[in-house]
Every structure is written in structure tokens, then in C-alpha cells.
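User: Fold this; C-alpha cells only.

Assistant: Input:
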Amino acid sequence: MTIKEKLKEDLKTAMKEKDTVRKNVVQLIKAGVLQVEKDNKVTLDDAGVTDVIAKQLKQRRDSLPDYERSGREDLIVQLKREMELLMEYLPAQLSREELIEIVANAIKDTGASTVKDMGKIMAAVMPQTKGRADGKEINRIAREMLD
């Protein structure tokens, strides 16, 4: 079953169970996928859908500190629930140890020695971790290893 088919089934289930948060998240994912398909005149495969979902997850992660500063507990809880639901559609996230290993190999392969070489490292690591790790975390690990 493709991710698109799973989204369609989950939308039906969420509507039947009156799970509004899940329904809203699935509709947002479907809308994001449709937007990309219309803009680029393509039909997305599972990898493309995963990119859209990862982008939406990143948006929520980035807005979480703003919600926490505002003190709106109801919105914080909803946002965290949305993030959990988005994670269900992404491949299993890599552990910190796995990321350290991947970044170490990239540093060795690219011959990077200073923080100025971050572009080379990120270019080597990101295709391997696409949708399975946060770019900020990869960047943080690479900086720690280069310092």
C-alpha cells in the first residue's frame, strides 16, 4: 500500500471515528501533496510524499518554541499531537548513534577538517538520511565532530 492510499484510508477512518486532529493532519498532507503535484505537473511517488510530510513536520517543529513562549497550552498539545501523527507516515527516525556513524563516514569520505567544509558534509549526508533525520541535528553532530 502506497502512502497516498494509506492517507486516503486514514482520512475515511478519522472521519468515521470523528478524530478531528487526525482528519485535519491527513487533509493537510493531502493538500500539500496535491500542491506540489500541481505546481510541478508531476505525480509524486512515496519518496515525494515523504518529502512533503517531512517538510510539514519541520514547520511544526519550528513553530513549537513560539507556541511555548506564548503559553497557549491547548495549542501546544494540539501541535505535539499533529507532530506524532506526521511521524507515523515517515520512515523510522535514525538514532543519534546511527547519525554519528553516518556523519563520521561523510567526514572521512569528503576529507572535511574544518567547519568551512560543512557544505560538503551536508551534501553527502542528506541524501542518505532523507526523511529519517532532522537537518539541524545532523548539522549539530557534524559541528561537534569538527570542533
